[in-house]
């Protein structure tokens, strides 16, 4: 299997090459030349598999340049109950992503039982092991440059801390994350972890990552890699839990389901789109935004109009405070019939701060073939949903999952079971939980008091030159 760029101007590469390379040299994102298809017989067989075996089956279709025995070993050591039990010793831990049923046909797929209590651990733990494997083979080092609005950063740092030959430079929006998220990252003292708080929003940080990645000489000299969902390996690992969730919520492969997905950078729901393109019977992919509603606007109106930092709001689902959704480009590539020239045309407008509009074109009609629905959620909606789920089911959900559930319930076709993806645990957002429920969320014993630990972080303006100097000063040459 080879991978091509959404902008159509980069040579095709293998899975391992793009794993270490991140963004394509033409500024695009990599996707498989064709989506591998899953047969009915495979679906029937996969239904019975453990998470690790299912991950091996799905990833074997993508990582075709990794020998099967090696891939099986990597996946086997990643998806264990120990890594995804978050201190619990119940039978749910063995399922890795247990399905919690709220009421008939309404489920939450638990994805946040990994080391940092967010869905990012599902792919990031695998990425850490894949990097280690690929780098050892090539006897190389990797300097990871990432951007986070709160969860990718800690997941990446926990997955990479202490790993030989890997350094992490993680940009986060200064003062915009929850106290718990800040503490998770900034309290790490490992010498290979560098936290950089940017005076700006997540989108500024992500632009800086792309600017450094597009400086090909710097990227090659300092061996820059990525852990954001612009890295295809992240998305492919996220495809797995759509299959797992589908099997858990249905009895046969004749049934269809709806997934509702709290969205920001369009990475999580892009994995759902890919699972559907592979043949998973997904009848609806419901995209939920918070007040930063660029993506909801697109699915309602056909206009993609990323906002600037000054029009990106700080909300109580802060990890979704994103107005320029990187992975959306992957979906648009499929929408426009994989026409790289069209994607280049659209993104030349977007990169200049503009917009594009598909309403008057045939793409608008084509959109319905992809089974998306969308909606948005506000602070008051979030509080109401958290309260209702707590009162009716005794289940505490985090503000992002609440956005997903609220929109999912509004948009679902009643005939379809709804699977809402849980994207974080409430422990990460104690202030909003306190406001909604007048009580504090529980947290794993190992994370008691992390806010009181000493923190280490470099504060920087959103200046690409300064960032490059910082990286150069911290990478031995
Ligand atoms: C808790 C949480 N929910 C939802 C999202 C949105 O996911 P995506 O960016 O993949 O759309 C994020 C960040 O990405 C997140 O950290
Ligand atoms: N919400 C994310 C933002 C980055 O998204 P990614 O999936 O592209 O890594 C975060 O929590 O950092």
From TrEMBL:
Coiled coil: none annotated. Its EC number is 4.2.3.1. Its cofactor is pyridoxal 5'-phosphate. Transmembrane segments: none annotated. Residues 106-342 form the Tryptophan synthase beta chain-like PALP domain. Keywords: Amino-acid biosynthesis, Lyase, Pyridoxal phosphate, Threonine biosynthesis. InterPro entries: Ser/Thr_deHydtase_PyrdxlP-BS, Thr_synth_N, Thr_synth_N_sf, Thr_synthase-like, Threonine_Synthase, TrpB-like_PALP, TrpB-like_PALP_sf. Residues 2-79 form the Threonine synthase N-terminal domain. GO terms for biological process: threonine biosynthetic process. It catalyses: O-phospho-L-homoserine + H2O = L-threonine + phosphate. One of its GO terms (molecular function) is threonine synthase activity. The modification N6-(pyridoxal phosphate)lysine is found at residue 120. Gene3D superfamilies: 3.40.50.1100, Threonine synthase, N-terminal domain. Pathway: Amino-acid biosynthesis; L-threonine biosynthesis; L-threonine from L-aspartate: step 5/5. It is an enzyme of class 4 (lyase). Belongs to the threonine synthase family. This is Threonine synthase. It comes from Sideroxyarcus emersonii. The lineage of its organism: Bacteria, Pseudomonadati, Pseudomonadota, Betaproteobacteria, Nitrosomonadales.
């Amino acid at each position: 299997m080879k991978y091509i760029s959404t902008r159509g101007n980069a040579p095709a590469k293998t899975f391992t090459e793009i794993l270490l390379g991140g963004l394509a040299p033409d500024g695009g994102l990599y996707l498989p030349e064709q989506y591998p298809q899953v047969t009915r017989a495979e679906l029937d067989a996969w239904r019975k598999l453990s998470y690790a075996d299912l991950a091996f089956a799905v990833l074997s279709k993508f990582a075709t340049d990794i020998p099967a025995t090696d891939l099986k070993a990597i996946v086997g050591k990643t998806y264990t109950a120990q890594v995804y039990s978050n201190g619990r010793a119940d039978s749910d831990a063995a399922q890795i992503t247990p399905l919690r049923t709220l009421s008939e046909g309404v489920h939450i797929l638990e994805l946040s039982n990994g080391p940092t209590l967010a869905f990012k651990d599902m792919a990031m733990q695998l990425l850490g092991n894949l990097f280690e494997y690929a780098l050892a083979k090539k006897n190389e080092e990797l300097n990871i440059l990432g951007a986070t609005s709160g969860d990718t950063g800690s997941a990446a740092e926990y997955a990479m801390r202490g790993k030989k030959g890997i350094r992490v430079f993680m940009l986060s929006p200064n003062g915009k994350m929850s106290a718990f998220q800040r503490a998770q990252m900034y309290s790490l003292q490992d010498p290979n972890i560098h936290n950089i708080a940017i005076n700006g929003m997540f989108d500024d940080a992500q632009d800086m990552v792309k600017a450094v990645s597009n400086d090909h000489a710097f990227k090659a000299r300092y061996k820059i890699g990525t852990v954001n969902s612009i890295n295809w390996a992240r998305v492919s690992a996220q495809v797995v839990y759509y299959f797992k969730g589908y099997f858990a919520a249905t009895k046969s492969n004749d049934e269809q389901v709806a997934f509702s997905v709290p969205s920001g950078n369009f990475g999580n729901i892009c994995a759902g789109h890919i699972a559907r393109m592979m043949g998973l019977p997904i009848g609806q992919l419901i995209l939920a935004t918070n007040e930063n509603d660029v993506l909801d606007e697109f699915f309602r109106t056909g206009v993609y109009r990323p906002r600037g930092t000054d029009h990106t709001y700080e909300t109580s689902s802060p990890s979704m405070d994103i107005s320029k959704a990187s992975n959306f480009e992957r979906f648009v590539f499929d929408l426009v019939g994989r026409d790289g020239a069209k994607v280049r045309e659209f993104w030349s407008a977007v990169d200049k701060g503009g917009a594009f509009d598909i309403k008057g074109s045939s793409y608008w009609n084509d959109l319905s073939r992809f089974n998306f629905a969308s909606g948005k959620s506000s602070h008051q909606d979030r509080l109401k949903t958290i309260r209702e789920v707590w009162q009716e089911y005794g289940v505490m959900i985090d503000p992002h999952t609440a956005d997903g559930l609220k929109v999912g319930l509004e948009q679902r076709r009643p005939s379809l079971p709804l699977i809402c993806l849980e994207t974080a645990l409430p422990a990460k957002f104690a202030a909003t939980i306190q406001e909604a429920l007048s009580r504090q969320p529980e947290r794993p014993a190992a994370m008691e008091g992390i806010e009181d630990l000493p923190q280490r972080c470099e504060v920087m303006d959103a200046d690409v030159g300064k960032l490059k100097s910082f990286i150069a000063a911290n990478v031995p040459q």
